[in-house]
């Protein structure tokens, strides 16, 4: 500000862009007026939060030339507010000083699309040079008694540290400074990391705390005296001839119109800090309407600060009582939930014990049936004698039933019989052989596969109980079955990942994968498995 000219305001804006936009020096120099846009960030606090967005062109960290964005909001500290410095520099450049440039001619794109934001002092059609920028930063560092080898990069580093001190996370800072280059951050997340912007502006990173006591609303007539050309060009670009062609121009005019209010709300306080600044020679500051507003703005800023503090003091007892009531209600709800959970847990333990007992019994039966029956030699001899005697008795009864009824019965000693081979004798090698468990080859959808895996199909046990929770697992399975199981587990794994990431049931996750499978060129489970084996985690979670 000591230089008291347009170049000084330009360099102040450049430093603010480096700190609060975390921009490299080449990004600052290449910035164009047509790169400016803005919007109102919703739900940020009591004061309307203007968000200024800048489009970044290719640079050292953006060799591909894809569109990147930087953004900043109004700062709690007026003296370093990047939004006000932007409005101040543009007002001074367009309307103040010995040779103001005037408002850009928006009649055609060629007239203004390539106009630099930070222009050279002698030729406003050219961007400021690196040497000029470096000298300005070096002089500022000397005035602050700061010694560093980094000159043009120091503001970007300072911005990252300020954001960290304000409570922003490293990931948020990396996104704001364009140090993050993952697919998720580039293609899926927003380009505006709000927590970093809040931290840099001096507000709580959690949000809802954006309040500026100096945000006093000016009258519409006074607003139109700031950047007066906005209304003329807005009417022209909204005409049917230009309406579908000049989106960039309308975004630029919307931004300048938003800066009107910022300029009027902050300039009275800036005038107290720098009363001899050359822009105060502009006729606006001799206007009676502006003078009345300036006095009102200074007075109401003080009262707004006091009223805000008073409202906090009045709200604290009410808030304390409300929090206590909610805490008691939450504690009671927690106790009820905990009691229900304990009951469910006890029931689950009992069910698990019953299931384990049944499972152990089934395992014992399967083990017994899988072993051959071995009969000792003496028992085999006894069984053969009994078989022979029974055969002889059948023959005698068939030849003479009457004599057998009247004849006395004699006991036949078993030891006197021999052991002939008989077709009716017990074969030790005859026992029931159970078929090994195999997965169904007729399953053709993910939903059927999930049902087979969790509860089983057609009365058969589940794959999970046989191969993951069973006593032998895949040990007794054939190599073909093992390979088939492992391939199908790739699909099961994808179902579980979708369940976890989207907090849905397995059946719902299987249905999502079936929809994706049907869109494949070959809608089979094998084709889906091949796709899953090559897809990234983001692709799988996006089905």
TrEMBL record:
Residues covered by the Transcription activator GCR1-like domain: 437-517
- Superkingdom as given in the UniProt entry: Eukaryota
The record's Gene3D superfamilies line, in alphabetical order, gives: Centromere DNA-binding protein complex CBF3 subunit, domain 2
Q: What is one GO biological process annotated to this record?
A: positive regulation of ribosomal protein gene transcription by RNA polymerase II
Cited InterPro entries: DNA_brk_join_enz, HOT1, Ndc10_dom2_sf, NDC10_II, TF_GCR1-like
**GO molecular function terms attached to this record:** DNA-binding transcription factor activity, RNA polymerase II-specific; RNA polymerase II cis-regulatory region sequence-specific DNA binding
| All residue ranges annotated as the Ndc10 domain in the record | 4-291
Q: What is this protein called?
A: Ndc10 domain-containing protein
Question: Native species of this protein?
Answer: Tremella mesenterica
């Amino acid at each position: 500000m000591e230089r008291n000219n347009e170049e000084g305001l330009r360099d102040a804006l450049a430093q603010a862009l480096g700190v609060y936009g975390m921009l490299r020096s080449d990004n600052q120099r290449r910035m164009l007026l047509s790169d400016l846009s803005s919007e109102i960030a919703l739900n940020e606090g009591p004061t309307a939060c203007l968000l200024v967005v800048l489009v970044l062109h290719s640079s050292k960290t953006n060799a591909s030339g894809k569109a990147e964005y930087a953004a900043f909001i109004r700062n709690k500290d007026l003296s370093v507010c990047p939004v006000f410095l932007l409005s101040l520099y543009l007002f001074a450049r367009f309307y103040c000083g010995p040779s103001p440039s005037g408002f850009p001619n928006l009649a055609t794109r060629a007239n203004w699309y390539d106009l630099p934001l930070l222009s050279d002092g002698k030729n406003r059609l050219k961007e400021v040079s690196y040497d000029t920028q470096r000298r300005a930063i070096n002089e500022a560092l000397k005035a602050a008694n700061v010694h560093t080898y980094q000159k043009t990069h120091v503001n970007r580093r300072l911005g990252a540290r300020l954001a960290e001190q304000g409570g922003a996370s490293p990931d948020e800072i990396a996104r704001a400074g364009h140090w993050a280059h993952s697919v998720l951050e580039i293609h899926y997340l927003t380009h505006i990391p709000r927590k970093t912007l809040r931290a840099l502006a001096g507000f709580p990173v959690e949000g809802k705390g954006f309040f500026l006591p100096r945000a006093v609303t000016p009258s519409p007539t006074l607003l139109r005296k700031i950047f007066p050309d906005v209304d003329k060009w807005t009417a022209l670009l909204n005409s049917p001839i230009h309406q579908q062609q000049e989106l960039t121009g309308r975004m630029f005019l919307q931004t300048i119109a938003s800066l009107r209010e910022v300029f009027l709300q902050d300039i009275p306080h800036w005038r107290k800090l720098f009363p001899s600044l050359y822009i105060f020679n502009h006729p606006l500051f001799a206007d009676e309407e502006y003078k009345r507003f300036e006095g009102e703005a200074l007075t109401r800023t003080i009262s707004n600060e006091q009223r805000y503090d008073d409202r906090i003091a009045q709200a604290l007892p009410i808030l304390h009582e409300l929090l206590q009531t909610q805490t008691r209600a939450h504690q009671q709800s927690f106790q009820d939930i905990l009691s229900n959970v304990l009951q469910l847990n006890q029931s689950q333990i009992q069910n698990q014990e019953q299931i384990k007992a049944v499972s152990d019994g089934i395992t014992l039966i399967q083990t017994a049936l899988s072993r051959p029956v071995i009969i000792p030699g003496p028992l085999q001899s006894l069984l053969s004698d009994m078989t022979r005697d029974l055969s002889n008795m059948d023959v005698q009864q068939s030849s003479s039933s009457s004599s057998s009824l009247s004849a006395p019965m004699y006991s036949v000693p078993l030891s006197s019989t021999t052991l002939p081979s008989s077709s009716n004798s017990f074969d030790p090698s005859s026992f029931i052989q159970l078929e090994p468990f195999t997965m169904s080859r007729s399953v053709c959808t993910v939903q059927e596969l999930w049902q087979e895996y969790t509860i089983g199909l057609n009365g058969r046990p589940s794959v999970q109980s046989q191969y993951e929770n069973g006593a032998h697992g895949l040990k007794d399975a054939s190599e073909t079955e093992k390979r088939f199981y492992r391939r199908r587990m790739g699909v099961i794994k994808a179902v579980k990942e979708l369940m976890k990431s989207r907090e849905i049931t397995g059946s719902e996750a299987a249905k999502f994968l079936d929809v994706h499978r049907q869109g494949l060129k070959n809608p089979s489970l094998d084709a889906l498995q091949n796709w899953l084996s090559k897809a990234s985690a983001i692709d799988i979670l996006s089905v």
